[in-house]
Amino acid sequence: MQGLPSFIPTAQKTAYLQQLLAVGFDVLDFGSFVSPKAIPQLRDTAEVLAGLDLDRTRTRLLAIVANQRGAEAAASHPEISFLGFPLSLSETFQRRNTNQTIAEALADVAVLHELCERRGKTLVVYLSMGFGNPYGDAYSPALVVDFAGQLATLGVRLVALSDTVGVSTPALITSLFTELLPAFPQIGFGAHLHTTPTAWLEKVQAAYQVGCRRFDSALGGIGGCPMAADTLTGNLATENLVAFLAAQGEELGLDMAALAQARLLAAEVLSPAVC
């Protein structure tokens, strides 16, 4: 929702997220405790959270934070299990996204991890621009491995390689996960892929075939990162991912009728906000 120009009323957000909770996903990224000036669409995250009924779902909630203040706010809610923090391999994007240097962001990661440990939460670090960047900043697979090593030293246990602007290739996805998974067995690595409708399959296949089992997605592939570029590269579509995993014989345990209803609701709630 974060990149959509028209504000979605709180009640509509809550109803849509409640329907997603009925599907039975592992984790739902439901909102952000960030500056309302930076992401005005998500300024009502606390109100949305208060309106959710979590009694009949197995799904755990994740909130994105961009600094220590946001992390403290998110951690004060017992309903939230995961705090997500974007750490970029690109100095330009780190400044653009969280108004920090990479060094400052890494220092925040250490503080946020300690906060999560204290408050019974789990920190998820998104390695933004994990497959390259459009700014001319240095990038290499070795840099990704170096960042992963620093996160492992800090004790971070969940890391999502994020293709923020959709520049990954199957070959690069394969090589990165092939190196990272055995090198850091204490970290659960996931794929946060932004992609075009025609390129998603080869990217998901590449990650899956080398052992990745954590994928982020959004219904209809709507969304993207508004801080990354002037135009959004969409998310991996949930319906495509579910179909792919089912074809691999994965037992997802999802309520498919609830998923179909969520797709209808997504078209109703999110499509008007795109305009």
TrEMBL record:
Identify the keywords attached in UniProt to this record, alphabetized: Lyase, Metal-binding
Q: Please indicate if the UniProt record lists Plastid as a keyword.
A: no
Give the GO terms filed under biological process for this record: ketone body biosynthetic process; L-leucine catabolic process
Query: Can you name one GO molecular function term for this protein?
Result: hydroxymethylglutaryl-CoA lyase activity
Transmembrane helix found in the keyword field: no
The chain positions of domain Pyruvate carboxyltransferase read 1-260
The organism's place on the tree of life at top rank: Bacteria
Please name the Pfam families in this protein's record: HMGL-like
Check the record and name the CDD domains matching this protein.
DRE_TIM_HMGL
| Stated family | Belongs to the HMG-CoA lyase family.
Provide the protein name: Hydroxymethylglutaryl-CoA lyase
The protein's organism comes out as Hymenobacter polaris
